[in-house]
Amino acid sequence: MPRPTRVGRRAALTLLACAVPLAARGQTAPAAAVALPELSVVGSATPTGPLPGEARGSLSVPSVDTQRATLYGTVGSVAFVDAATIQDRYANTIRDVLKDVPGVYVQERYGQELRLSVRGSGVARNFHLRGIELLQDGIPFNLADGSGDFYQIDPLALRSVEVYKGGNALTFGATTLGGAINFVTPTAYTALAPNILRLDGGSFGTIREQAQMSRIDGPLDVLVNATLTNSDGFRAHEAQATRNFNANIGYRIAPDIETRFYLGTYITDQKLPGSLTLGQSLTTPTLANPTAITGNQSRKVETERIANRTSFLLDVGKLDVDTWAIHKSLYHPIFQAIDQDGWTYGISPHWAGTFDLGGFRDDVVLGLRAYAGQNSALQFVNIRGQRGAKTLNSLQSASSYEAYGENRFWFLPDVALMTGAKAFSSNRTFSDKGGVPGNVTPRFADLTYSGINPKIGLLWQPLPDLQVFGDVTRSRDVPDFSDLVQQNLLNTTFVPLQAQRAWTYEAGARGRVDRLAFDVTLYRSDLRDELINFSTNPGLNIPAATFNTPRSIHQGVEAAVTLDVARDLAAAGDGLSLTQIWTHNDFRFVRDPVFGNNRIAGIPPDVLRTVLSYRHPSGFHIAPALDWVPQGAFADHANTLRVPGYALLGIEAGIDFANGVSLFVDARNLTDARYVSDVAVVANAAATAGGAGALAAFYPGNGRSVFGGVRASF
């Protein structure tokens, strides 16, 4: 059983150390603010000319330029995506948004189902999300137990994306191994245009409509966005329909007070094709697993979210007070029919300000977070997708209380010392409400996890467009209910897992030198009690089992380099750039009792992406790209079976007319390569019934596809 840690006195002392500059309250730094680079190392060049709303913002949501500058003030590895760069591609999932970010591994399984991992977070878990905090507009999107899904994130309803890797997400209070990803939606001030209409379509019977409208009327601003998507999918039994609605309403109560409400409804109805054998994936990838068809396996999710941020501009700094409520209803017939309904509530005050401390600039962030939720978790015998006899009647309750602080002290004009810490206490309570004798052991469990996660680092900025950094952070990942409540064909068992702990060391540099932009980070994480998954029967779609491995290592390289190859080629103002993105993953057990020093299965060791982009001042642009995985991931922790590597060739092209109309085409996997996009990891493939050749644990990638669209902005 996890042992609670005494955090009260230690938390107070640690956070007090972070907040020492408060003694200098009421002053501002006399020196000019340190300039921050505006890095652009993504595969697609940003559109030429100023973007509507780019230089504007409001008290609760700053301008995109300010968002970028704030992000690159972080002492550690981060990334920024301006959503203007993804307007001219078929952005159906968050893979299309994040595929140009080094260190982020995001891979499609089918439809909206993805594997998302940063630095090996949830490395062997091939469903849902663990180890990364998802936020929308800086407000948590995860449920109370830390679990999360991707369906609610609409790529067409974004204005920017901020990626904080690992402990660098402390500015939000997140200290998991993978960090946090903040998806920022537009306001009427930051929208690319007051009105946007878009129609996409293409392969696999795909069609999507989107409409966005925004208005400003004195102190009131309103933005509404709706996206409808329908697709038959590449594989049999993969049809999906999604309905996403986002809105935000801001009101300037006074010159120094603004409140903003966020409203969202997200509906997904996704058929599940299941997993195949390796041979089937490479020869007949459009097949569905027979059990997926006979069980009419699917996932129907309805989520409603309401959140509020009220911002106060103070004499020193700014205070944001966030509140949120999320309702999620899930009906998920797989090996059994999972029927869940739950709520998550939270509140979080967050203050940031700058002081003068003995003539030196000092930046301080302080925050609190409290959130809780309950989830009614029922299960039934799956009878062709319908509920049969009840097999589980349980209640899952989770709560967390957190305090965090971060301090950046510029003791030299170009060097900052960053210190910070987070104290937390998280509770997980599970109860079997009865009605299904002999199903759950134990029938009631109550666990509390607590601790302190510190951080220290240095940032050196010798030039306005160059930063060098290094830091050390501690992370803790608390198990969610998908880890704690484990399944097999016969019953459900509660497993009292330990929290995953890690120390992460990283060093890197980012910036621009003449025509070369770069962002390179090396990191190593030493983990204790890592939460490792393996599927007991992936062909039946049974959720993976989880265990703590005593020691493990995650280390790697996150690199993105963009070279402006040529300018003024065919016309004055045009440009040709070459981008290389490389993510190296080395994740290993360390003297594990069963797996020794094997590689942890699930993610390939190297993922590379090369993009050649050309943009003409007339608005024409074209970008061929090569996605290359030289060596595939292991399918098992015993390292007896590895999937083949692959290379995918694609091309994006389009034209933006002066009247606000844009046309684009996005062609993928032009050679129609057969490959495995994801794996349901098992313990030992060679030991499975029928041998590795009969193991149905693989998800084939999509074949050749072409999508096109038209967008009107006015």
UniProtKB/TrEMBL annotation:
Belongs to the TonB-dependent receptor family. Residues 234-670 form the TonB-dependent receptor-like beta-barrel domain. One of its GO terms (biological process) is siderophore transmembrane transport. One of its GO terms (molecular function) is siderophore uptake transmembrane transporter activity. It comes from Methylobacterium tardum. Keywords: Cell outer membrane, Membrane, Receptor, Signal, TonB box, Transmembrane, Transmembrane beta strand, Transport. It is a multi-pass membrane protein. Its main location: membrane. PANTHER family: TONB-DEPENDENT OUTER MEMBRANE RECEPTOR, TONB-DEPENDENT RECEPTOR YNCD-RELATED. Residues 1-26 form the signal peptide. GO terms for cellular component: cell outer membrane. It holds the Pfam family TonB_dep_Rec_b-barrel. Residues 74-180 form the TonB-dependent receptor plug domain. It is found in: Cell outer membrane. The keyword Transmembrane helix does not apply. The keyword Signal applies. PROSITE patterns: TAT, TONB_DEPENDENT_REC_3. This is TonB-dependent receptor.
